[in-house]
Write a structure and sequence with these properties.
4 copies of one chain form a homotetramer. Chain A is an alpha+beta fold. Chain A has 11 helices and 18 strands. Chain A folds into 2 domains: 11-186 and 339-406, 3-Layer(aba) Sandwich (Aminopeptidase), CATH 3.40.630.10; 193-307, Alpha-Beta Plaits, CATH 3.30.70.360. The first copy, chain A, has helices spanning 11-26, 35-48, 113-128, 151-157, 160-163, 217-234, 273-294, 314-328, 346-350, 366-370, 387-406, and strands at residues 51-55, 59-66, 71-77, 96-98, 104-106, 136-143, 169-179, 183-185, 188-191, 193-202, 206-207, 242-251, 257-258, 261-270, 300-307, 310-312, 333-335, 356-364. In chain A, strand 4 and strand 5 form a beta hairpin. Chains in contact: A-B, A-C, A-D, B-C, B-D, C-D. Strand 12 of chain C pairs antiparallel with strand 12 (242-251) of chain D.
Chain lengths: 408, 408, 408, 408
C-alpha cells in the first residue's frame, strides 16, 4: 500500500455522511434495543449491494467481498445512553427509551457511537466504490449493546464467526475528547478489563439502642470497604494496574433502626488477566471473611457485568501505527498508555484467537479543548464532537487500516 | 393515703374507657397533627367540667382543681405512627396522614399512646367523681408529638408552666410489652437521651477507573463509621452507658461512578449528661478529622432530633414504688435497669426543676408472652395490647401515684 | 454483736503491728516466691498458738478455733511487685528477685499487700486474746501470687478447703488510694474479671518494595485492632461493662522489610460472666476471620492469665455494711460502683459455692489526697500508705466483719 | 566502535581479578567505614598510575586520562552489610564491625558490591593497557555507603564534580540474582525512589481497665495504618507505581497497661517524582488527621533516609542497549520493567544534570537458578555469586559501555 492508493471521499459522499450522522445522533436507542439503527444500517448495506445478516438481536453483519485475499473485520458499536442531552445542537436528541424495569428515560448518543456507525458506513461506501484499490473480504460488524457489555457476547453467542468469514484481524476505533484530526493508540493493553458486582451483606436488624441484639450490616459494610483498600495497596505488584471502586453503598431507612441488610456495588479495573484473577479472588476472600468477623451470614455476590480484555496485538499495532504515521502525518499519531476505561471490543478477536487493534480518534476542535471550564467528555450530557475533521479522520483511519491489509 | 381511700372505677366507667380506647385506636393521627384527638380530649374535659387550654398546637392542658393542697402534673402523649396496622383487630386503624413532605402514609397507634389518653381521661373522671378522697390540683398534660421529640418542647415554648399551676412533681407512664397487670420502674435514670444527626460527607466525583481524580466519599464514610467504633469502645467509662448507631448510609448511583457525596445518619444513646457531652464531642472530632484525612471539605452535620434526659428522682421514685407495692402487690412491681429507648417526657419537669417519675405498665397477657414467635413490641404493626387488665392497671397506677401526693 | 463487744488493740499491739508492717514493707518478695514472708507468718501464728499448714507453695493457712460456732475465712495476699521503690521511706525496699526468665529485678510492696498481712496477723492476735468475745472458727488464708492470678488457684489445687474447715463466708480487703479511715464497698460485682491473651499473627515476609510477595502481618494486626473496637461498641449491652485493651503491639525490625509475624497482647475486663463469654468468643471470631481476610494462617492465641469474678454476695454485703456503718460511723462507709480492676480473691469462695465479701480501706491522708500532682496509686513506685489510721482501720474493719459472724 | 576494538582481559588479568574479588569478599566493611577497601583501591590505582583523591570520607575517585575526548564516569559502590555470612565459601567473611550505637555485628558483602569493585578495577586496568583503543577521560567513582543512602550525598557534598572532570554521562551496574552472563536494563525509570520515616504517635497512658482516661496510641497507630492503605489504593493513578509499607510497629510493655506512645516506621517507593510528592503529602495529611481524630497531639515524623530517583536516560540507554546486544549477543540482553528496589546512584548524574545509565548483570549459574528451594537473593546470608561468568561479564559490559562513548 502506498499513499496514492488510499481513496478519498468525494464532497458528495462527505455531505451524505454528515446527514447520516445527524440523523443517527437525533435518534439514539438504548443498549440491545437498537432496532431502528439496525434497520438503517441494513438499508445502507442494501444500497451498496453488501450482503448482510442479523446477529445478536440488533447487531448487523455486512460482508463486502472483492475477490481473493485476506479477510479483515471492522467493528462499530451502535448504542446510545440513558442521558438527557444538553448540547443545544439543532440535531440534539429528544428520544426516550425504556430501561429493563420499564422506566422511561431520555436517550442520547453521549458516547459518540453515532460517529462510529456513520464513519464505518462511509468507509464501506468508499471501498465499495474503489474496488480496484484492494482485494479480499471486509466484514462490517455493527455491534449493539457495548455500554452494558452485552453486545459482543450476544453476537458471539449468535454464531458471528461461524456465519461470517473468519478474519485475520479485528479492527475498531472510538471517538474521544482529544483533538479532532489525531489518532491515539497504545501497544499491548488498550483498555482495562472491568468487573462489576453487587454485594448484599446480611445482618440482623434491631432498634438503634440495642446493638447487642443486632448484627449491624452498616458497620460490616464499612469494614469491608475499609479492608478492600488493602487489595490494591498490598496485593498487587506496584508496576501492575488495578482499581477497586465501591461506587454505591446503601443501607437503612431510619436513623434509629439498625437495618437487616445493606448493599454495595463494586467496580474493578485491571489490565493483566493474572492480576484480575488475583484481585477478584481477594475481594471474595475479604467479603466472606469480614462477614465471618461480624458473625454474619455469607454475603450475596451478584455479577453485574464483565468487560473483557482489550489487547492491541503488539506486532499488528506497531505495523498499523507506521501506516497511520505515513498517511496521517507523524504529528497526528500519538502512542499512549492504556486507558483504565473499558470496552467489550476485545472479546470479538479473543473468541477466535486472532489479533485485534483498537484506537481512538479525537473529537474536539482546538477551541473546545482550550476553552474555559471542563472539556465535555464521553457520557457527559454536553458531549458534542466537532463534525469535522472528526468524521473524515475516522473514515481515513478506517480505510488506511483496512487497506494496510487488503490494499493492492 | 391508705388502700381504702383509693377509689375504684365502676363497671360503667370501665366500659366507657374501653369504648374511648377503641375509638382512639381506630383514629390515630401523626405527630403534631393530633387535631381530632385534641378535640376529643377537650370534649371529655368539658364533660367533667375541667378547665382547659390548648398548648403547643395540638396539646391540651386540663386543670382539675379541688381545694387547697399541692399541685401534681400527669402527662399522656397522644400521637400515632406512620405504620400500616396489621393486628387484625376489629377496631384496627385504616387512617392515613401526610408526612412533612406531603407523602400520604397509613397511621397506627403502634406505640400505645391511645392507652395513655384513655387511661388519663378515665383517671381524671374517677378523681373528679371522688373529690372527698383528695385535695389540691391535678394538671392533665395531653402532649402531642412525642415520637418526633417535638411535643414537649412545643408545649414548654408555648408557656405550659406559665399558664398552668406549677406542679411539685410531674408523673407519666407508658405501656410496654411486659405482662399486663405489672408495673416496671427504675430509680434514677429511666430512659436514655437520644441525639440524631444527619451527616453529609462531601468528596469529589470521578469515573470509577480514575480514583486519583476523585475524593471518594464512600471510602471516607466507611472510615468514619469504622473510627466511630472507638468512641464507645475507648472513650466511655465501661460502667457508663453509650450507644452510637449509624442507622443509614447512602451514597452513589452507579457502580462505575465515584459519587461526589454520601450521607449517613447517626443515633446516639446515653444516660449521663457528661457522657453525652463527651460522646457528641468525640463524634464531631472524628467526623471532622476523617474528612481532613481524606483531604475532603468539612462534612455537614444536621441535628435531626434531641430526646432529653428522662430521670426518675430517686427519693420521689422510691416513695412511689412503696405505694405501688402496697396498692398493687409486691409481686406486680418490678424495679428495673434504665431502658436505652428514649422519651421527651423528662423535659417537662426538668424545664422548671421539679422532680419527675416515669414508669411502664405491662400490655400483654401471659398467652401472648408465652406464644411462639417474637412478642409484638412497640412500633411493630402487630402491637396490640390486651385491653384488660392493661387499662385498669394503668388507671390504678395513675390514681395511686396522684393520691400519693394529693390523697387525704 | 454490739459496739461494746468489739475489742480494741492495745498501744503495745499497735506498736507491734507497725514494726511488723515496716519489716514486711522492707522485704517484699515476688509472686509465688514469698518464702521469707511465709516463714514470718508461720512464726507469728506459732506465737499465737494457732495451728497452720502450708498450701499452694508459699501460701499459709492458720486455723484459730474457739469452741462451737460458724466458720469464717479471711484472706490476705502476700506478694510484692517487680518495681523499683521510689518512696523515700526509711523502711523502703532495696530487695531484688528473679523473674521466671532469670532476670534480676527490684521488688517493692507497691500494691500494699504488706498492709494486708500486718492487719490480718494483728486482728488474729487481737481475737486470740479476746476469746470471750466470740466463738467459732476463724480460717486465716495468707495467699501468695495475687498479682499473677496464680495464688488462689494454687491454694485451691493444693486442697485448701479439704484441709481447712469449710467456711460459711470468705472475707477479704484491699488498701486503696482513698482517704485513710474510710471503707469503700460495692454490692454485687466488686471487681472485674480479667483475661489476658498473647496473639501472634503469622504472615509472610518480603522486601518492603514487594508487598505482593508478602502477607503483611502489620497490616493484618492493624485491621484486627480496628475491628476489635466493634466488640464493645456493638456487641455488648450498653448497660453492661466491658473493656478490650490491646496493651502491646510488636512487629518488624527494619522499615524496609515486611516481617513474617507480629504479636500483640489483649486485656479484657468484664463484670458479667455471660458478657465475658460473649466478648471472648467475639475476639476469637474476629482474630480468626481477619487472618482469613488477609489470606494468613490462623493466629496463635495464648492465654496469659485469667482473673476470676469477684462478686460481693448482696445479702451478706448489705448486712456487713450495716455493721460497718454502726461501728465505724455512717460517714466513713461508702457504697461504690464496681471497680474495673481485678483480683483473684473471688475464686476462693466460688470454688465451694459460699458467699464472699471484699472491700477497700483507704490508705492516704487528707494532705496527700489534696496535694499537688497526681495521688500515687497502687503499682506506682511512689505508693506509700499513711501508716495510720490506715492500719488500725484495716484491723477494725476485719474484726468487725469477723465478729458480725462469730461475735457472742 | 566495533566489536574488534573491544579489548579482552588476558588469563592473567582474569586470575588477578578473581584474587582481588576473594580478598574483598573476605574483608567487607560497614557503610561509611570502608577504610581498608579505600586503601586497597588507592593501591590498585597507584599501580596503574591513575591519579586519585579521597572524596566523602571513604570514597575514592580515580581519573584515567587518555588524551582528547569526552569524559565518562563509572561508579562502583564499596560497602558491605551487617549480616552473618552463611555461604560456606572458603573465602567467606568472618569480619565484624560496629554500628553507630556501638554494637559489634558481623559484616558480609551480602549485596555483591565486592564484585562491583573488582570489576571496575579490572576494567580500568584493561583500558589503561589498551590506550590505543580509546581517547578521552574515564572517571572511576568508588562510592561508599550505598546501603544507607549516605554515600552519593557525601561525595557530592565533598565536591565530587568540582574536583573531578565533569562527565557527559554517569554509568553504573549492579550484580543481581539473574543468570550469570546476562545483562538486564530498563529504559526510563531504573529503580524506585525510597523514603523512610519513623513516626511516633503520642497518646496518654492509663490502666488497661480505664480506657476513658487514656488516649490509646495503639488504637491510633492501628487506624493510621488502616487509613494509609487508601493512599496507594485511591490516590495514585493505577498506571503509576507506589508502595507504602509500614515495616515496624512497636508500642506497649504489658498487656494491662495502655502505653503513652507507639512508634512505627514507613517505607515509600515511587518511580515518578510527582507521585512521590503526592504520596508523601498524603501520608503527612493522614498521620496528622488520625491523631486529631483520637484527640492526640501531632505525631512526630522523623526522616530516616531518602533514596533518590534512578532514571535511565532513554536516548542514552537505548543507544547503549544496541551496543550491548551487538557485543554480548541479543539473547543476553534483556529489557525489563523498573525495579521497585532503590539505589543512590541516580543522585550522581542528577546533581549536575547529566544523563545516567544503570544496568544489572546476572550473578547465578543455571544450576543455582534451577535448584530446589529459593534462589539466594541480595541481602541473604547465602548470597554467593558464581565467580564466572559473572565477573567477566561485568568487565565486558563496563568496557563496552565506556568504549561506546570513548572508543576510537
Amino acid at each position: 500500500m502506498t499513499t496514492t492508493t488510499v481513496p478519498q471521499p468525494s464532497e458528495e459522499l462527505t455531505e451524505r455522511m454528515h446527514e447520516l450522522y445527524r440523523h443517527l445522533h437525533a435518534h439514539p436507542e438504548l443498549s440491545m434495543q437498537e432496532h431502528a439503527t439496525a434497520e438503517l444500517i441494513e438499508r445502507e448495506l442494501d444500497a451498496l449491494g453488501v450482503e448482510h445478516f442479523r446477529c445478536g438481536g440488533t447487531g448487523v453483519v455486512g460482508v463486502l467481498r472483492n475477490g481473493q485475499g485476506p479477510v479483515v473485520a471492522f467493528r462499530a458499536d451502535t448504542d446510545g445512553l440513558p442521558l438527557a442531552e444538553d448540547t443545544g445542537l439543532d440535531y440534539a436528541s429528544t428520544a426516550t427509551g425504556r430501561l429493563e424495569d420499564g422506566t422511561e428515560v431520555p436517550v442520547m448518543h453521549g458516547c459518540g457511537h453515532d460517529t462510529h456507525v456513520a464513519v464505518l458506513l462511509t468507509a464501506a461506501r468508499l471501498l465499495a466504490g474503489a474496488r480496484e484499490a484492494w482485494s479480499g473480504t471486509l466484514v462490517l460488524v455493527f455491534q449493539p449493546g457495548e455500554e452494558t457489555a452485552a453486545g459482543a457476547q450476544a453476537m458471539l453467542a449468535d454464531g458471528l464467526w461461524e456465519r461470517a468469514p473468519r478474519p485475520e484481524v479485528v479492527l475498531g476505533q472510538h471517538v474521544m475528547p482529544q483533538l479532532a484530526g489525531t489518532i491515539h493508540c497504545s501497544v499491548g493493553d488498550a483498555m482495562a478489563m472491568a468487573d462489576s458486582w453487587r454485594v448484599t451483606v446480611h445482618g440482623k436488624g434491631a432498634h438503634a439502642s440495642q446493638p447487642q441484639d443486632a448484627t449491624d450490616p452498616i458497620v460490616l459494610g464499612a469494614h469491608i470497604i475499609t479492608r478492600l483498600q488493602t487489595v490494591v495497596a498490598r496485593e498487587v505488584d506496584p508496576r501492575r494496574s488495578a482499581v477497586v471502586t465501591v461506587g454505591t453503598f446503601h443501607g437503612g431507612l431510619k436513623e434509629n433502626i439498625i437495618p437487616a441488610r445493606a448493599e454495595f456495588t463494586l467496580n474493578v479495573r485491571t489490565l493483566d488477566p493474572e492480576v484480575r484473577e488475583h484481585v477478584l479472588g481477594a475481594l471474595r476472600r475479604i467479603i466472606s471473611a469480614e462477614a465471618a468477623a461480624s458473625g454474619a451470614p455469607e454475603p450475596t455476590v451478584e455479577v453485574l457485568s464483565t468487560f473483557p480484555r482489550n489487547y492491541n496485538d503488539p506486532a499488528a499495532t506497531t505495523e498499523l501505527l507506521e501506516h497511520f504515521r505515513r498517511e496521517l502525518g507523524e504529528e497526528r499519531v500519538v502512542q499512549v498508555d492504556p486507558l483504565m476505561g473499558s470496552e467489550d471490543f476485545g472479546a470479538l478477536g479473543a473468541a477466535i484467537g486472532v489479533p485485534s487493534v483498537f484506537w481512538m480518534f479525537g473529537g474536539h476542535d482546538a477551541a473546545t479543548l482550550a476553552g474555559e471550564g471542563p472539556v465535555p467528555v464521553n457520557h457527559s450530557p454536553f458531549f458534542a464532537p466537532a463534525v469535522e475533521p472528526t468524521l473524515s479522520t475516522g473514515v481515513r483511519a478506517a480505510v488506511v487500516a483496512i487497506l494496510a491489509r487488503l490494499g493492492r
